[in-house]
């Protein structure tokens, strides 16, 4: 089974301890000995758990969805749609004593009600301060009425290393709060297809359904990651779990506490692709490393720093980048106004340039419009494409043409229009702005020929008047 297809967005942790010792040969016995005293035998993670566990919560959400009746049974039931309640169970961490909680977006997506159960078994109604689907993170708040709750600190400064001991805490399968331990198995995992800022800590600490949103904790009791997904063919832990790094989590929490309703992240103003072995030889490199720049936004941060197409970006602030996702993450998790050092290879020479980190520009303005009238796109909401709107909706400003569909309802949904589509042409007229699209739909006569761009494919559809 393809590992990406086996990825499950989950919430988890089961009470078990991973064996860290590896099989050894007889010659290793000289270096092995029993614990020298009773105190050594009593070494335990318990002090860390006692400090951290009270700040770990359960997150419950529910939503009502309308379910169509099977056509056969509709002959007897009248064909009326039925409401069905969908529930979700996850975990979270209290990051501020006044009731601010960090969890996964997929735990509360489209929820009509969210509740939180704290470790002392009290239940609280929760409101969503900020929901960030692109990072799969959400920030909740409960009204503590002045009570100060236990918290866990987000450590976005230290850098975990492969081999570090970690704990995963959460509520797997709804059995109650449990703790598992393991090690950091890998860092900077980017080809896992979980979210748009793919750059994960991999761990072998047991993670199971129900643990999503729970903390991955280091040996100082700090949150270094948010448990988010596993690779599994059965749905249970197979020793390959992924956590969103603390730097991304801290960014989302800070945005929520500042009153923002969405996260505006720094951008590079360029995109690139990983260097393959064949490409490395063509660049005169002795091994594949870095990201070759394929597009540069005119006047953006990369362009002003002197970065051009064909350059190879090797590091950002001393951290190596080996694919486009890693490059995006390193820039996106810096702070607005920072100046970062970018090592660039050009014509066999490596130089370091200073890149001023800034918000993506909102030019042209989004100008959102919900289309109406007698036309195939009625019910769709569209915006103009800029680097800012592309970042907000997960679109690619470099390869897109036309206006971006952000919501599809009504007739537009019925004909198959989807969020993320670009409307490029109507009856041969190029569409550059939402105003262009409204005008083109209003002037149509006998029908419409609409050109849509979706995931790199161009679709032409004809509709009668």
Structure description:
- The protein has 465 residues and is of the alpha+beta class.
- Helix content is 17%, strand content 35%.
- The chain contains 12 helices and 27 strands.
- Strands 21, 22, 23, 24, 25, 26 and 27 form a 7-stranded antiparallel β-sheet that branches. Strands 9-10-11-14-13-12 form a 6-stranded antiparallel β-barrel.
- It is globular and about 85 Å long.
- Mean pLDDT is 83; it is low at 1-30.
Helix and strand layout, with pairings?
Elements lengths: L2 H4 E3 L6 E2 L20 H4 L4 H7 L3 E12 L3 H7 L4 E15 L3 E4 L1 H4 L4 E5 L5 E10 L4 E6 L22 E6 L7 E12 L10 E4 L11 E3 L5 E9 L9 E5 H12 L12 E5 L2 H6 L8 E6 L4 H4 L7 E5 L2 E2 L3 H9 L6 E8 L2 E8 L12 E2 L9 E4 L3 H7 L9 E6 L1 H5 L7 E5 L2 E2 L3 H9 L4 E8 L2 E8 L1
Parallel strand pairs: 2-10
Antiparallel strand pairs: 1-13, 3-4, 3-6, 4-5, 5-8, 6-7, 7-8, 9-10, 9-12, 10-11, 11-14, 12-13, 13-14, 15-16, 16-17, 17-18, 17-19, 19-20, 21-22, 22-23, 23-24, 24-25, 24-26, 26-27
Quick structural overview:
This protein is α+β, with helices and mostly antiparallel strands. It is 17% helix and 35% strand. The protein has helices at residues 3-6, 38-41, 46-52, 71-77, 105-108, 246-257, 277-282, 301-304, 324-332, 387-393, 410-414, 434-442; strands at 7-9, 16-17, 56-67, 82-96, 100-103, 113-117, 123-132, 137-142, 165-170, 178-189, 200-203, 215-217, 223-231, 241-245, 270-274, 291-296, 312-316, 319-320, 339-346, 349-356, 369-370, 380-383, 403-408, 422-426, 429-430, 447-454, 457-464.
């Amino acid at each position: 089974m393809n590992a990406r297809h086996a990825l499950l967005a989950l919430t988890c942790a089961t009470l078990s301890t991973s064996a860290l010792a590896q099989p050894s040969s007889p010659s290793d016995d000289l270096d092995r000995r029993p614990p020298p005293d009773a105190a050594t035998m009593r070494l335990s993670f318990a002090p860390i758990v006692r400090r951290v566990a009270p700040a770990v919560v359960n997150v419950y959400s529910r939503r009502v969805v309308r379910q169509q009746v099977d056509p056969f049974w509709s002959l007897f039931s009248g064909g009326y749609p039925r409401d069905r309640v969908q529930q979700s169970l996850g975990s979270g961490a209290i990051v501020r004593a006044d009731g601010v909680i960090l969890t996964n977006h997929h735990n509360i997506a489209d929820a009509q009600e969210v509740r939180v159960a704290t470790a002392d078994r009290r239940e609280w109604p929760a409101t969503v301060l900020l929901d960030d689907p692109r990072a799969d993170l959400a920030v909740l708040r409960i009204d503590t009425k002045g009570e100060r709750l236990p918290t866990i600190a987000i450590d976005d400064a230290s850098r975990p290393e492969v081999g570090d001991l970690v704990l995963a805490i959460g509520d797997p399968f709804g059995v109650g709060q449990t703790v598992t331990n393991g090690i950091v198995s890998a860092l900077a995992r980017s080809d896992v297809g979980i979210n748009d800022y793919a750059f994960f800590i991999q761990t072998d600490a047991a993670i199971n359904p129900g643990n999503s949103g729970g903390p991955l904790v280091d040996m100082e009791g700090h949150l270094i990651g948010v448990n988010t997904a596993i690779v599994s063919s059965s749905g249970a832990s197979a020793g390959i779990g992924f956590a969103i790094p603390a730097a991304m989590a801290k960014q989302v929490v800070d945005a929520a506490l500042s009153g923002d309703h969405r996260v505006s992240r720094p951008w590079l103003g360029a995109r690139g692709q990983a260097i393959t072995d064949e490409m490395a030889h063509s660049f005169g490199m002795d091994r594949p490393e870095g990201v070759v720049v394929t597009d540069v936004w005119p006047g953006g941060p990369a362009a002003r720093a002197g970065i051009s197409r064909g350059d190879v970006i090797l590091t950002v602030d001393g951290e190596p980048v080996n694919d486009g996702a890693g490059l995006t993450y390193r820039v996106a998790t810096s702070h607005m106004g920072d100046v970062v050092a970018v090592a660039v290879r050009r014509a066999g020479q490596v130089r370091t340039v200073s890149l001023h980190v800034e918000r993506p520009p909102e030019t042209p303005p989004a100008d959102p419009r919900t289309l109406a009238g007698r036309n195939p796109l009625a019910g769709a909401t569209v915006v103009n494409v800029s680097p800012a709107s592309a970042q907000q909706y997960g679109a690619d400003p470099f390869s897109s043409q036309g206006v971006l569909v952000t919501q599809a309802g009504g007739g537009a949904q019925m004909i198959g229009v989807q969020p993320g589509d670009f409307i490029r042409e109507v009856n041969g007229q190029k569409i550059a702005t939402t105003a262009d699209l409204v005008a083109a739909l209003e002037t149509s006569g006998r029908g419409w020929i609409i050109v849509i761009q979706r995931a790199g494919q161009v679709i032409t559809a004809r509709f009668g008047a």
